[in-house]
Design goal:
By secondary structure, the protein is mainly α. Helices cover 92% and strands 0% of the residues.
Length: 206
């Protein structure tokens, strides 16, 4: 394996590790800090720019490997259907090795490009999900504060109504007490009046 295909393999392995880290079940606070660092760090931005350039070269390698695979496949078919065929074991082994290497390089570069697209899309989806969760937490907090404010207002109104009801009860009790006192006083005066009237009638009868 040449040096650029070895570097492509290392890049593919790094992409696989990064993908596993992105989809791992991390706590929300840790995930938020991690993605905020990845999206806002200038160092990560420079690394991402370098990776974009490297993916351009990987794309060129993919096209070259694809072309080699088609050419080797065509040469193999031509050798098999030729007049003499591939009776030599070395020639057949050589064609098979060339075809294998061409297919390996095609799959290697192709998976590297495909996983780069998957990583980019996964990162953007998870970042949007984190922003959505933050907005939901803020709205929930505001709604909770508003609900607490409404509850405090309702409690104050109920306290006022209760105080007014207690004041009415006190007024009613006072009125009842005054009415009872007036009725007792009226009974007392009526008794005295009846006694006075009874005394006067007794004197007249004498």
């Amino acid at each position: 394996m040449t040096i650029y295909y070895s570097l492509t393999f290392l890049l593919l392995a790094a992409e696989m590790i990064t993908f596993c880290l992105l989809v791992s079940p991390l706590p929300f606070t840790v995930r938020k800090k991690l993605f905020r660092f990845l999206s806002e760090s200038p160092i990560i931005a420079k690394v991402a720019y370098g990776l974009k350039i490297s993916f351009i070269f990987v794309g060129i390698l993919f096209l070259d490997a694809l072309q080699r695979m088609f050419r080797v496949t065509a040469e193999t078919e031509m050798a098999k259907t030729g007049s003499q065929g591939m009776h030599d074991v070395r020639t057949e082994t050589n064609f098979a090795a060339r075809k294998f290497y061409a297919q390996r390089n095609t799959y290697l570069t192709g998976f590297c490009l495909f996983l780069s697209l998957v990583l980019t899309r996964t990162f953007s989806i998870i970042l949007d999900l984190i922003h959505t969760q933050e907005e939901y937490a803020k709205l929930k907090k505001v709604a909770g504060a508003g609900a607490k404010g409404d509850q405090s207002k309702q409690i104050e109104e109920l306290k006022k109504k209760l105080a007014a009801s207690e004041a009415k009860d006190r007024d009613f009790a006072n009125l009842k007490k005054q009415a009872a006192q007036q009725a007792a006083e009226f009974d007392r005066l009526a008794s005295k009046y009846n006694e006075a009237i009874g005394g006067v009638s007794d004197k007249k009868s004498d």
